[in-house]
Each structure stands twice: as structure tokens, then as C-alpha cells.
Design a protein that fits this description.
CATH class: Alpha Beta
Number of domains: 1
Largest sheet: 5 strands, mixed
């Protein structure tokens, strides 16, 4: 069965995410993408035009700034955004939060004794 143009775009976007050093989970019920600790740039985040399904996105420890945050405006499924140690300004974060009030934004690292619920190991 041939894939639709939307499916082909999404698959190409996922490959681009991986080529940029990103990784994650792309399942029917859960879509997570992490670019944490990668060289991803503001412009690289245009990939989400063709992959708007992300529910959880981690951009922590990157050089992403305010312009990159603008590329996330179309992520209607976004529930959580981690932006610890980025170049995103407080005013840009507040503006994003006003437009996306249901998105939980994390700007601080987890406590030193926190445990990853998926691995059972410390963060």
C-alpha cells in the first residue's frame, strides 16, 4: 500500500531529526523527540513543519534561541518542552506560554537525587 504524501513527509522529517543527532519514540500513542546535548540550531527546528506530532520535546543544553522557539508554534500536540540551558530568553518563554498555556515548560534541571522513571537510574 502506498503511503500518503503526509506520511512520506513525516518519515523524511523523522530521518532528518535523526541526522541532526535527535532521537526519540514515534509510536501511535506517544511521540517524544530529544535534541538534548546536540548541535541543533534554530533553523533546524523547521523540521517540525512536516512533523507536528511531538508531545514531548527536549532541547536542553543546545544553542537554540528565541527564533527556534518560533518554529514550534505549529506543534499542537506538544505537552512538555524542556529547555534547560538554552539561549531562549525569558520574554520569549512567556510569550510561548501565553500562546500555548497547556504546555509544561521546564527550564531548570532535575534535582541531583532525581531518578529517571524510565531507566531507574539517576539523571
Amino acid at each position: 500500500m502506498a503511503r500518503s504524501p503526509i506520511q512520506r513527509k513525516a518519515q523524511a522529517a523523522w530521518k532528518r531529526i535523526e541526522s541532526l543527532g535527535g532521537h526519540g519514540v514515534w509510536e501511535r500513542e506517544l511521540v517524544v523527540v530529544s535534541f538534548a546535548n546536540t548541535g541543533v540550531t534554530d533553523e533546524d527546528l523547521t523540521v517540525f513543519r512536516d512533523f507536528p506530532y511531538v508531545q514531548i520535546l527536549d532541547l536542553s543544553h543546545t544553542n537554540v534561541g528565541d527564533a527556534g522557539l518560533n518554529h514550534l508554534a505549529g506543534l499542537d500536540a506538544l505537552e512538555e518542552l524542556a529547555i534547560v540551558d538554552t539561549k531562549i530568553s525569558e520574554p520569549a518563554i512567556k510569550a510561548f506560554q501565553r500562546k500555548h498555556p497547556s504546555v509544561k515548560i521546564t527550564t531548570e534541571p532535575p534535582p541531583k537525587d532525581a531518578v529517571n522513571p524510565f531507566t531507574g537510574k539517576p539523571f
